[in-house]
Amino acid sequence: MRVLKDILYKVSLNSTIGNMDKEISEIVFDSRKVVKDSVFVAISGTIVDGHDFIDTALEKGASVIVCEVLPEKVDANTTYVQVINSASALGIMAANYYENPSSKLKIVAVTGTNGKTTTATLLYQLFVEMGYVVGLLSTVENKINDEIIPATHTTPDALSIQALLRKMVDAGCTHCFMEASSHAIVQERTSGVRLTGAIFTNISHDHLDYHGTFDEYIKAKKKLFDELPKDSFALINADDKRGMVMLQNTKATRQSFGLKYPADFKAKILTNALEGLELDINGKQVWFRMIGEFNAYNILGVMATAVLLGEDEDEVLVQLSKVQGAQGRFDKISIAGITAIVDYAHTPDALENVLKTIQGVRSGGEQVITVVGCGGNRDKTKRPIMAKIATQLSDKVILTSDNPRNEEPMAILREMEAGVNPVDFKKTMIIEDRREAIKTAGIMANKGDIILIAGKGHETYQEIKGVKYPFDDREIVKELITLLNK
Ligand SMILES: CC(=O)N[C@H]1[C@@H](OP(=O)(O)OP(=O)(O)OC[C@H]2O[C@@H](n3ccc(=O)[nH]c3=O)[C@H](O)[C@@H]2O)O[C@H](CO)[C@@H](O)[C@@H]1O[C@H](C)C(=O)N[C@@H](C)C(=O)N[C@H](CCC(=O)O)C(=O)O
Ligand SMILES: Nc1ncnc2c1ncn2[C@@H]1O[C@H](COP(=O)(O)OP(=O)(O)OP(=O)(O)O)[C@@H](O)[C@H]1O
Ligand SMILES: N[C@H](CCC[C@H](N)C(=O)O)C(=O)O
Ligand SMILES: [Mg+2]
């Protein structure tokens, strides 16, 4: 049990009604999860308004209501706390409830359109290699030391974040590396998390369905840096056009990394091959297991972060050269002389980077066959662009379903097809069923060819009309082994 006024410490209040010394059992922000003597935080969402569920929360036993707008009729036994911003209040209250775990950890948040999971996972793996007990909050999975806690979001909700950070502290973690998605930043899921540093990887086209305009999307990322404390660091990719924008209003120490423009941490690519990357970092030549220029950025950002966290650069490079990166990111599987690459590229920029990387490392005579789709109920404007990029940078393309969610798969595919130049029609096919599409690519491929299967990476399901069916691109590629060895 906690006392209400203690968990409201540092929350911006407008007004209060009732007893502030009440003992409360839990904090909830979903009326369906209310338990006796809990605090219900009413948040206005994208689909419904939590304020409409205040009565239901009271019926189920909530004894405190935290809201932005007070109900017209108030109940005499209930405490009402009117706040400026319920979503932000939730994060701060959750932090107080779990006794501010972030003050006992070094937490670094990674934001950017692409590279968040890769960067956070590399940091996790690096710090484990260096002997630390580490936590990770990522799209693929959450981790507390070795324990895996399945992830439902790239960045969990505010309450779950604090609960996970508490578990990390209790498990002896010293560091936590986490992704901060733009949705999470806007929805204040990271409010109440005290950061030691934040990293900006890059920004390109995505999520315009949610943010409305590219400017709003940039603002969402910038908010993370605007809110950093004075004693933290703000590390940006100096080669990204919007990198400096992130630093405009931050109180944190400004740091940068890059391959092209002047930066605090610099590297040069010496070799970029299917076997890995060789980089020159401060006169030291080091091989890494990851592939492609974009991974040179991820590696450099990780090295810079480790140094800013006080680690020795030479030791960092030795350990970093051993790590693998995140699942489903440029995962190579060899079958019957064909190289299949499963990659989570689900934005135009990521797809272009991956295909340009493949173009850069191919030997010349082989075909590059790309299987790609776009998710339903997500930014529609990226569909034609991704299809165009796929056809321009591949020899053959099969457009297929990703997670259609509640949309008609064929309607998504028609929107993708609209981006294909007429000259590229002859190399483009549409196969709605993703399993069939992957199999067809396998049948079309000859020895030496490269098949890129983009968009779903580590995902182990395909979401169709509200149902998540088991589906794993990597498993389907493995099924090809029997098919092609016949
Ligand atoms: C669009 C979006 O981001 N939505 C997130 C948001 O939900 P919402 O605003 O839609 O909530 P809502 O359904 O309108 O409900 C509003 C409030 O009423 C409450 N409610 C609702 C119903 C009820 O009966 N009782 C009740 O109290 C809800 O608990 C909520 O507090 O807040 C919820 C709680 O944190 C999230 O689970 C939910 O994620 C949805 C499921 C989602 O799909 N989000 C994706 C787009 C997302 O967040 N993706 C990013 C990664 C993107 C990327 O960079 O690639 C991520 O971080 O995962
Ligand atoms: N630094 C980078 N710049 C551009 N593209 C990248 C970069 N790092 C990875 N990618 C590409 O983007 C894909 C997604 O990478 P990753 O999962 O690390 O990004 P993310 O930001 O976590 O994505 P999400 O927002 O979906 O969680 C990779 O599979 C790869 O194709
Ligand atoms: N975090 C991203 C992941 C997209 C992955 C892709 N496979 C899709 O389902 O669209 C999102 O929720 O938009
Ligand atoms: Mg991610």
Automatic annotation (TrEMBL):
One annotated GO molecular function: UDP-N-acetylmuramoylalanyl-D-glutamate-2,6-diaminopimelate ligase activity
Entry superkingdom: Bacteria
Modified-residue entries (N6-carboxylysine), positions: K221
Binding site residues for UDP-N-acetyl-alpha-D-muramoyl-L-alanyl-D-glutamate: S31, T154, T155, S181, Q187, R189
Assigned keywords, A-Z: ATP-binding, Cell cycle, Cell division, Cell shape, Cell wall biogenesis/degradation, Cytoplasm, Ligase, Magnesium, Nucleotide-binding, Peptidoglycan synthesis
Residue intervals of the Mur ligase N-terminal catalytic domain: 23-98
Binding site for ATP: G112, T113, N114, G115, K116, T117, T118
List of residues binding meso-2,6-diaminopimelate: R378, D402, N403, P404, R405, G455, E459
Motif Meso-diaminopimelate recognition motif, chain ranges: 402-405
Residues of the Mur ligase central domain: 110-306
EC assignment: 6.3.2.13
Main subcellular localisation: cytoplasm
Catalysed reactions listed for this entry: UDP-N-acetyl-alpha-D-muramoyl-L-alanyl-D-glutamate + meso-2,6-diaminopimelate + ATP = UDP-N-acetyl-alpha-D-muramoyl-L-alanyl-gamma-D-glutamyl-meso-2,6-diaminopimelate + ADP + phosphate + H(+)
Uppermost EC category: ligase
Keyword hit for Magnesium: yes
Pathway note: Cell wall biogenesis; peptidoglycan biosynthesis
Domain Mur ligase C-terminal: 328-457
Compartment(s) of residence: Cytoplasm
NCBIfam families assigned to the protein according to its UniProt record, in alphabetical order: murE, PRK00139.1-4
Physiological role: Catalyzes the addition of meso-diaminopimelic acid to the nucleotide precursor UDP-N-acetylmuramoyl-L-alanyl-D-glutamate (UMAG) in the biosynthesis of bacterial cell-wall peptidoglycan.
PANTHER family, per database record: MUR LIGASE FAMILY MEMBER, UDP-N-ACETYLMURAMOYL-L-ALANYL-D-GLUTAMATE--2,6-DIAMINOPIMELATE LIGASE MURE HOMOLOG, CHLOROPLASTIC
Assigned protein family: Belongs to the MurCDEF family. MurE subfamily.
Protein name: UDP-N-acetylmuramoyl-L-alanyl-D-glutamate--2,6-diaminopimelate ligase
Gene (UniProt): murE
